[in-house]
Amino acid sequence: MPSSGRGIPRKALDDDIISPAKLLTDLRDSKYLDAVWPSQSPQCVGLLGYDDPTGATGNTNFCQFGGPFGGQAAYHIKGAVQTILAPTQNGTTGRLDAGLDDAAAEGVEYIFGGLTNANNPLGGTVGSLTRGNKFLRMQFSLDDASEAAECAVGFRFGEASQALLDSYNDTAVINIQAGVVNVETIVDGAAATTTAISGISAVADNDVVIAEVQMKGGHPTFIFTNVTQGESKRFQVPVAEDMLDAVVYVPFFYFLQGAAGCALAFDRITAGDVLADQEHLQF
Questions:
Q1: 93 contacts 141 by C-beta, under 8 angstroms
Q2: Structural class in CATH, domain 23-276
Q3: Which letter does DSSP use for residue 70 in this model?
Q4: Is 147 in contact with 258 (CB distance < 8 Å)?
């Protein structure tokens, strides 16, 4: 059996050579998320955990994603009151319709792991991580990329959800804005620094893209792939290296629609410790 010193060779797992008891602790203890569609719709509840989701501006709900390694996310309502109250599997495509209402100036933020403090199983604390580095990787598409005012993948300070992306104290994200692929960072409450990723074409309607942010201590790495256009780029921003020690950060996705609205579809969400990442172990 091949051995890389990390993760699980997928063929060995499928062939029952590796038992669940031998899985990495992160995989056994819900510290790794890998949700893939087509699969079942997530199970969603309101803030209390036993009530229905709600769509009022600023409300928080929770959803439970299915496997292969399921997990929880909180989702926070942006913009005006929404009538679609939860992400649902599309009955035609099998993908996850994740943007809630397809309407102007509305949106949603997903906090993977569900918590905004150091207990978030998918987050960490800069300067004091015991197992190294965290990552968030998402595959998705936008049916009208020009109408994505904010479409941000990455990590943020573990504070209460804010109405605006730039209101967070610290962020490190890949942000698609009107099709342009940017890296955006905020350090210690300063103004956001936005840098367009050179060598990457603008995202077109229905392009399938993969956005990944790796938090290596206080040094984020950004990786963007446009699957449809066949482009990929690894990117680092020097200012992001100044992210503060002792800052709790959590993985999140922030989506806000423009004047005409934009449908959002998820294919896959993967997050956790880099050592537990299965992406490159498909034997």
A1: no
A2: mainly beta
A3: -
A4: yes
